[in-house]
Specification:
By secondary structure, the protein is α/β, with parallel strands linked by helices. The chain has a domain at 3-196 and 229-256 and 312-331: 3-Layer(aba) Sandwich (Rossmann fold). The protein is built from 12 helices and 12 strands. The protein has a 7-stranded parallel beta sheet with strand order 3-2-1-4-5-6-10, with helices on both faces. It has a 3-stranded mixed beta sheet with strand order 7-9-11. Helix 5 (160-179) links the parallel strand 5 and strand 6 (183-188). The radius of gyration is 20 Å and the shape is globular. The relative contact order is 0.13.
């Protein structure tokens, strides 16, 4: 039985991991630590609040004393670190918080783990694990014909966000090699699914269609990303935590490369079809383009490209498959339909988060 601290567990990927873990390991003890910034949403975890083996703590990963206190008082042996500032646009307009959270914050958790699990004889846990969640953006960008990123790819981050994550990856690695902390790291591709804050591409476009707002497309819209359904990400972390391999890095992707325009058209066509097949949706979302006889694609608007916009990311997850047998369960076609269903059914979650 594991006793976990999940940092950033009220955010998008963290919350989905928490639900995944509690479904699959209902006897494990879990503590979620989240600062509840704009992207951390405590109502995302409401379904768990009455469970005796679940605890939510509002607080920052920058608070080393708090992290140490939780590790000791809750007798925790595993940390899964999702806590991060993750929106590239925000890192361009205000990079300072990305360095404070992603670099200094991660370092403070590592210091806490080292002190409690290694240095203190009374609380030491030889079989501890610190799992760090990172991104494929640390590798930079690819052209159209290049093979996907492997774990041996040289780091070449291009935004303040990806640079801060690259820095945190190196610090995690150093704590393993220098201090003997049992660590593992995943560099994942773009995640999508329930509970994603509506500034990211897929929830932004879904909620804009439902409100008859423009769908802003950067540049030509031909930038390519690999897309990973969020539960498949949780499954991957599960495999790594169950293994005895420490100090290793695994790339985790969905084997789903799509350019942005193809995704946008798929979203528009899927929403138009949903409204055509279910008249009740027009009553629930009277502002929506398809509720008013319009095509969702009519809302597409091209805008100036983002500064330093990477052209293509692609993941080579062959190491993960070979060593731990990882395969994603969802295709993009199946995962996106689940995602659309969730946003249509959970207006009370996303509507209060909208800023315009």
């Amino acid at each position: 039985m594991k006793r976990l601290l999940v940092t950033g567990g009220a955010g998008f990927i963290g919350a989905n991991f928490v639900y995944y873990w509690m479904r699959n390991y209902p006897e494990d003890h879990m503590v979620v630590l989240d600062a509840l910034t704009y992207a951390g949403n405590e109502p995302s975890l409401d379904a768990l609040k009455d469970k005796p083996n679940f605890k939510f703590v509002e607080g920052s990963i920058a608070d080393q004393a708090l992290v140490e206190k939780l590790l000791v008082e809750e007798d925790l042996d595993t940390i899964v670190n999702f806590a991060a500032e993750s929106h590239v646009d925000r890192s361009i307009s205000g990079p300072d918080i990305f360095l404070e959270t992603n670099v200094i914050g991660t370092h403070n958790i590592l210091k806490a783990a080292r002190r409690v699990w290694i240095e203190n004889e009374d609380t030491a846990k030889p079989n501890h694990r610190f799992h760090h969640v990172s991104t494929d953006e640390v590798y930079g960008e690819l052209d159209d014909d290049s093979p996907g990123f492997t774990e041996e790819h040289v780091y070449a981050p291009n935004s303040p966000y990806s640079a801060s994550k690259a820095s945190s990856d190196h610090i995690v690695r150093a704590y393993h090699h220098t201090f003997g902390l049992n660590v593992s790291t995943t560099n994942c591709s773009n995640n999508y699914g329930p509970y994603q804050y509506p500034e990211k591409l897929i929830p932004l476009f879904l909620t804009n269609i439902l409100r008859n707002k423009n769908l802003p497309v950067y540049g030509t819209g031909k930038n390519v990303r690999d897309w990973l359904y969020v539960d498949d990400h949780a499954k991957g972390i599960d495999l790594i935590l169950a293994s005895d391999k420490v100090g290793d890095i695994y790339n985790i992707g969905g084997n789903n490369e799509w350019n942005n325009m193809d995704i946008i058209h798929l979203l528009c066509e899927s929403m138009d079809k949903r409204f055509a097949e279910n008249p009740e949706l027009a009553k629930q979302y009277p502002e929506a383009a398809p509720a008013n006889g319009k095509k969702s694609a009519d809302l597409i608007t091209f805008v100036e490209d983002r500064a330093g916009h990477d052209w293509r990311y692609a993941i080579d997850a062959s190491k993960f498959k070979k060593e731990l047998g990882y395969e994603p369960d969802e295709t993009f076609e199946t995962g996106i339909q689940k995602t659309i269903d969730w946003y249509l059914d959970n207006e009370e979650w996303w509507r209060p988060l909208l800023v315009n």
